[in-house]
Amino acid sequence: MLRHIAAFFRSTAPLLALACAFALVLPQGVQASSRIKDIVDVEGVRDNLLVGYGLVVGLNGTGDTLRNAPFTQQSLTAMLERLGVNTRGSQIKTANVAAVMVSANLPPFAPQGTRIDVTVSALGDATNLQGGVLLVTPLMGADGQVYAVSQGSVATGGFSAKGDASSVVRGVPTNGRIANGAVVEREIDFKLAELKTLRLALRNPDLTTAQRVAGAINTFLGNGAAVANNPTTVQLTVPPSYAGNVVNLLTDIEQLRVEPDLAARVVIDESSGVIVMGQDVRVSKVAIAQGNLTISVTETPQVSQPAPFSNTGQTTVVPRTSVNVDEAKGRKLAMVDGSISLKELVDGLNALGVSPRDMITILQAIKAAGALQAEIEVM
């Protein structure tokens, strides 16, 4: 097995040499470092989720069946009453109305009058929202207050068509969007310029990365301005020179570059066989043997007939079964040197034709043996 791995690396040596040459030409700092704005979020500067319940009208017979969706009928009756039409006690039959949930993200510091996109999703048994119009729908936040109002024509990315014998559906026709379909009516009050301290939250928590972010800020502003409180949070004290001008402070800080540090981790998606690993993953010295027991059963039934012109006997089907067992005896135990990285191990296993499923099993077995110096995360 190791001979195959060595042969594989010798065959790819020219490509590796070319890649190394490009790596030497490119600036190392540009490859490794990231801007602070790309790895942290400022506490308080975030989106807010909005949700509302409304009605989509004007559908071409693809709306809710009112007898199956009583909430649609109640909403339709209440809406008509608000418009001066009394339908209490009467039976409404229409397939052109659908009850929907409307959701949107309210950007930070969005002023009144700003337009935002909304997503419309069918709530009942409607089959298609194409061509429908969403009526005025208030959008509320988690506190129950109305922050935006939505209305407009729904655009769907899917379609459906059917006949008496067959039907076709592409995408999800019961889900659509309205571009700029909501108007912000209430602004969330957050006085960023008056803050005395700021908290920067790392998107990928890590102690080393938090310390490097704090160090880069202190180098720019002076010692003591930033402190890494935990793997997720860096607390920043606004210097006197930036008092009342936090926006300029954040503008200057977010352009600073640091090199994020990542934990050694192997992420495995067993459903699709995808394996993703970090560059710091290492394998200690370990012996590996991989073999599969394959049993194949083949049925070849034969027909048995009596002799010609025979008055006795009858035609019967005689079963014939062939069983083959492959124990993969040619595969032997191989020693993996502890100096190689996990990438080199996986490349060698790929060269030997090991399937992703078997590779996942091998990695999990190496981890169980204590030879994989990384964390395995199975999705």
Automatic annotation (TrEMBL):
Protein name: Flagellar P-ring protein
PANTHER family the UniProt entry points to: FLAGELLAR P-RING PERIPLASMIC PROTEIN FLGI, FLAGELLAR P-RING PROTEIN
Classification via HAMAP family: FlgI
Gene Ontology BP, a term: bacterial-type flagellum-dependent cell motility
Subcellular location: Bacterial flagellum basal body
InterPro entries according to UniProt: Flag_FlgI (IPR001782)
Keywords on record: Bacterial flagellum, Cell projection, Cilium, Flagellum, Periplasm, Signal
Subunit structure, as described in the record: The basal body constitutes a major portion of the flagellar organelle and consists of four rings (L,P,S, and M) mounted on a central rod.
GO molecular function, one term: structural molecule activity
Signal peptide bounds: 1-32
The protein's role, per its UniProt record: Assembles around the rod to form the L-ring and probably protects the motor/basal body from shearing forces during rotation.
Family: Belongs to the FlgI family.
NCBIfam families recorded: PRK05303.1 (NF003676)
Organism in which the protein naturally occurs: Parvibaculum sedimenti
GO cellular component, one term: bacterial-type flagellum basal body, distal rod, P ring
Pfam families assigned: FlgI
Gene coding for it: flgI
